[in-house]
Amino acid sequence: MKKIVIIGSGNVAEALALSLAEQGMAPVQIYARNAESGSALAARCGAEYAGEPAQLAPADLYLIAVSDRAIASVSASLDFGDAIVAHTSGSTPVDALSSKIRHRAVLYPLQSFTKGRNVDFREIPLMIEGCTAKALECVREVAGALSDRVLEVDSRRRAAVHLAAVFVSNFANYMYTIGEELLADTGMDFSLLKPLILETARKAVESSSPRRVQTGPAVRNDFQTKNLHCEMLVDKPDLKNIYINLSNQIWETSKKISRK
Hints:
The protein is of the alpha/beta class. The chain is built from nine helices and eight strands.
């Protein structure tokens, strides 16, 4: 069994550590600058905690699960010997890892993680990359123990996947936030929108393409409704611009679909 050390104690680190533990591959150590969250995570997955470079445990695989901007500095600041070192970022190239590391790799889980929420890693696409055969084989083995969907994806394509994920997850969630604010302005609760959100997501997932299940006034090019909505947003110019731009994009897309 491979010895794994997880570097970091944030959302991704927590999800990986707990999922590895469930598969009988619990990390031997959680290395993190934040002693409180790091030691708490270590206790939950039966690992030791370390916060100083000299305390870094020997391992076969080091998983760096820190913010994208910290990957280069963290990988350059620690001595990994000849071990395999992988980061977990979607948008960061494998070469962001320090050049002193021979066996550089990536293990990127395509999912949104929030502390305290359990996720089933078996359903999460895990994207892997390795600079050497040894690195690639190692992350493939670990990824295969966690997920039923493991894909070898290079840094350029993985960045494209991450961009798409930002649109369908981060941006979509911001739309929910706007909806919540608009309802709050009239004294109504966000819970009214939850059945609609769930059905919209189900249709997108179950359809051959989300384009084919797009609905609303923009698809119909309903000028009367769109103008009414814009009038309602006259005191919210930023939201009005979002509404107009998205409506235009939806209309252009719907025209392309109708011509096929």
